[in-house]
Amino acid sequence: xxxxxxxxxxxxxxxxxxxxxxxxxxxxxxxxxxxxxxxxxxxxxxxxxxxxxxxxxxxxxxxxxxxxxxxxxxxxxxxxxxxxxxxxxxxxxxxxxxxxxxxxxxxxxxxxxxxxxxxxxxxxxxxxxxxxxxxxxxxxxxxxxxxxxxxxxxxxxxxxxxxxxxxxxxxxxxxxxxxxxxxxxxxxxxxxxxxxxxxxxxxxxxxxxxxxxxxxxxxxxxxxxxxxxxxxxxxxxxxxxxxxxxxxxxxxxxxxxxxxxxxxxxxxxxxxxxxxxxxxxxxxxxxxxxxxxxxxxxxxxxxxxxxxxxxxxxxxxxxxxxxxxxxxxxxxxxxxxxxxxxxxxxxxxxxxxxxxxxxxxxxxxxxxxxxxxxxxxxxxxxxxxxxxxxxxxxxxxxxxxxxxxxxxxxxxxxxxxxxxxxxxxxxxxxxxxxxxxxxxxxxxxxxxxxxxxxxxxxxxxxxxxxxxxxxxxxxxxxxxxxxxxxxxxxxxxxxxxxxxxxxxxxxxxxxxxxxxxxxxxxxxxxxxxxxxxxxxxxxxxxxxxxxxxxxxxxxxxxxxxxxxxxxxxxxxxxxxxxxxxxxxxxxxxxxxxxxxxxxxxxxxxxxxxxxxxxxxxxxxxxxxxxxxxxxxxxxxxxxxxxxxxxxxxxxxxxxxxxxxxxxxxxxxxxxxxxxxxxxxxxxxxxxxxxxxxxxxxxxxxxxxxxxxxxxxxxxxxxxxxxxxx
Length: 725
Description:
It holds the Pfam family Radical_SAM_N. It is built from 27 helices and 21 strands.
């Protein structure tokens, strides 16, 4: 567990007076449910873009139950109709505030594919029905709350708000938008995991504080005219370059000096007399980052100047360590966004308390027999941790959950497994996952207190695993063994991605995983095979993959099991040239991988890779006049080409691939040979071009039934992942 500790424990506040109403079976969603609980009003109303599932994997349920545990009466309005204010008045006027979230996913990523096509499904909606939430849900919901009840504070949070806390590139409009606080007209934004800052906000509002005084809470952002009083500022251009650790000042204001007794004697100092004097302890000097803010380039500048945008993004990502992060200040016209330093991570006992709240672990009864795919996917899984050391540039976990690993205790996890066994309808004895953002970072930590509290690296494992990084997987191995021993549990699977460069540092873990916790397939994410894209993804090279595969195959054989790795790859990622995609496709073919679904790079707000996509500059390094120009696949045609190359076996993409190979001077890869990527144009394709049999490519001997059978001797791999993960 992290050495960074908050001044106040999460559940140490005096309970709000409404505690006397007790715990609700489900947080109420209608007036009738409120009446049954004896409530005349709600203290806090949560608006969410997801269906209400009372389960610790759903953000609204976690936040609702945490606030309930503080004594507040919490109601939920899930997926309200947004064409009028009526649905937002369903539970009446909240006594304290509205809490607004788009749900577990960003609403734009939820509603649109990476190619900006409208999705017609929604895994967080009953019966997978699409269209139950608006575009930019946080903004729309907040505006409707303001229409419904004027003067009620609005607190926004969740991943959608979190990733838009400052000026940010918007992929869907292809422009830089201002902070979401302005468009949502909200009073305060909570970024990251919300429990700690939200509980403080709730208690301060309940104590009668006005919103214009609740502006100094860690993990929050607010609109201000000027920086907070008493804070000193520095321009972002003066910030140290990435990776440099700020010096730790001596807590007593002086350097340590070692002197021998003889040196004291020569100086005329009587040690006994000095020892008899009262000890005067100097007050600790403030650390260089305390009460300090960084002035970012203004919205008006970053919206038109790509180097300044890249610079601002780089500074933001350096200020994510709660131990040393400075506040951020960014002008937007005559007002500014003030982003307080991140909240301190939850300690193990706090995590246990959050996950131990009285969740029903099922969807709200009002949905009847409707299926909610996201719930079906996680109902027998257990979240064992938060955060990720990886810092992959395309992933938003660092911006949202942070790099510090927050782990639950083994006892808390085992208790949840027992609850699944006893409460989940139709449970078959199989736990589908013990995981989190990454399966094998449970209880891993930085072994240096100094480094943990001052480090500004973007990743603990790239370009190499940090020397301070703990790679001992013993706690995870012990957890797996204990989970298997729970009565009534037949199998415990690991479905979360495994960080294989960490896993190979402890072969005992790989053996435990492969022997007992793989259900035939294990997913891992090399993402690419070529150094150019990998360096912009901040992912390890294929050497680590090869090491892991060797161990995987070895221990699978020893266990007498036929098991397969399922590698994930991303196409059209910034830094990827056409030649890189061809080389990756050749690697896939040589290893007999035929990808099923492929994820084209999706530029999610505020991710490092999105900055590279927008600016075509390497923002992972200092921004200078001679900064590296990064090749970025843009435009529908090139993005489709990269996706087609990754699915080299799909005949639909062959014409496009052939054309590209010829332009690259790689026509030798077209043909029948084993070293060829795609076949020559077949007779049936030519007929199709002539219009005699239509435009649909025909099956050839290259894609006939015998080849289809061969292709399916190994599992199809790939998946439709989102970069928000």
